[in-house]
Amino acid sequence: MFKNILFSIVMLFCLSANSCKRVLHKVSTNHTSYQIKGNSAMVDKEVEDLIRPYKTDLDLVMNEVLGVSMQDMPKRKPESLLGNWMADAIQEHAEKTLGKQISFAVQNYGGIRIPIINKGPITRGKIFELMPFDNTIEVLNLDGKQVETFIRHMLERNGWPVSHSLRVKYLNGILDVEINEESLDYSKEYLVAVPDYIANGGSDCNFLLGTEREILNALIRNVLVDYVKNKGNLDPKIEGRFVIKN
Hints:
This protein folds into two domains: 2-22 and 39-62, no CATH class; 66-118 and 135-245, 5'-nucleotidase,  domain 2 (Alpha-Beta Complex). It is globular. A hairpin with a 2-residue loop joins β8 (174-179) and β9. It is 39% helix and 23% strand. α1 packs across α2 (40-62) and α3 crosses α7 (220-231). The chain contains seven helices and 13 strands. It has 246 residues and is an alpha/beta fold.
């Protein structure tokens, strides 16, 4: 019970933070453990009394149905229904914000915090479970060689979620990459939308540090909420975006 109460407090804090429109940064992974002494039942009751005035309103917000998943959407590698729609949502938001085409978008696999969204209604609370971190979107300007380095990095991790405009095939040691139905061109530059965590070196992506970028002050969590609300029904497909055969 105490854990559930703390979760509710965290959700309330997140909602309050979003309404203030602050510039948010990568959440630290450091944490401190605290030992609560005394009667646990008494502690539970004290916390319940503290949050009771807010819980009803919080439940109303978190239980809001944003849309419907037409099928189970699991998290898998190298490609999954869940990852596909998340990456597509990131690309769509980046393109609308910047007013130009984005080459492709990436959502790091570890940033997806639940294993599945089940068929049926999708609530705001479910999106908070899916993306509890305050990650934002950054659009990187990468040359062809940097794109290859990024893709090989994802390959070493058996694939990450990528948007519909990217096709990666790694067959018997041979890498083939298409972006918007054209082969990767080492003489070109590409706009790649990623979570700020990745842009700033997370998941061993130090090779992205120092790259030219545009910072979009939009929480990925809010982007996903808006995407579901606008689409209504989600019915993504497995399209061969990331194919690995050794």
